[in-house]
Amino acid sequence: MFETCTARLALFYMSCGMRLYVSGGNSGIGKETAVALALRGARVIIACRDEEKARKAVKEIKARSHSMNVLHMEVDLANMRSIREFCKTFLQKEKRLDILINNAGVPSVLDWTDDNFSMCFGVNHLGHFLLTNLLLLRLKESSPSRVLNLTCSSYKYQKLDFKDLNYNLFPFFTYCRSKLANIYFTQELARMMEGKGVTAYAIHPGYVQSSWTCHYSILYRIFAQVVMFMFFISCEAGAQAVVYCAVSDEVLPHSGGYFADCRPAPLRAFARDSGVAKKLWEASERLVKLA
């Protein structure tokens, strides 16, 4: 995958002069994406809830990209008030938003957000849903612009239950549903923004050697690290698909599509249901109290 994506990106290694926001840009795929796009001349804003980690990440991204146009802003995607405050500050300070990368996420953990949503669904879907909607006007003003939602091929193992969107009985199933929600969200956003200069893409970056194991016990972390070392790809390789969808004009005809390995990928039939996508959008609006 890494070699394929790198080859396809070769034609797009130029200064893009864009302004972008990366959630979860302090580590993993988010940080590698920030480095790659800063190298291309982008103004990069990364956001996370830990200010100390963010400062260290900004320092590293600047050093590796040789760009001083990198900064951080604080936001907690598990807290709707924090998201609203972040967006208010962002809109006051930033006059353009060319690319919004919804990268931050949590693995399959049995926990709850500050607003009493299951952690996976609350952060991986609802947090990004609210943030994107609050920044949507700026995206339209900056058109042509793009929204990139990171998802996972594990979406195929679950379907949404609208009687219990906040499902949190089996953490892995909750995670799968949140990744499916990312896909539906992307599809409905693309439909709503058709002809308005904003395109949207759902991206499966592959199974990556990231720091998601920090949520688990030391024994599980050791086991997971061994498995990741043997079978998973690096964060740098995983970021290639994200960078490709951010800068390549080849993706423009595929707004609303699902990408893997730097190309459009097929989805299971149930994940292409526009009626479910619209229903999820409307339910999400109610849950985050989006007027």
UniProtKB/TrEMBL annotation:
Domain of life: Eukaryota
Keywords of the record: Oxidoreductase
Entry keyword Nuclease: no
GO MF annotation terms: oxidoreductase activity
InterPro entries, per the entry: NAD(P)-bd_dom_sf, SDR_fam
Key word 4Fe-4S present: no
Signal peptide stretch: none
Family assignment from sequence similarity: Belongs to the short-chain dehydrogenases/reductases (SDR) family.
Entry-linked PANTHER family: PHOSPHATIDYLINOSITOL-GLYCAN BIOSYNTHESIS CLASS F PROTEIN-RELATED, RETINOL DEHYDROGENASE 14
Protein name: Retinol dehydrogenase 11
Organism from which the protein derives: Anabarilius grahami (Kanglang fish)
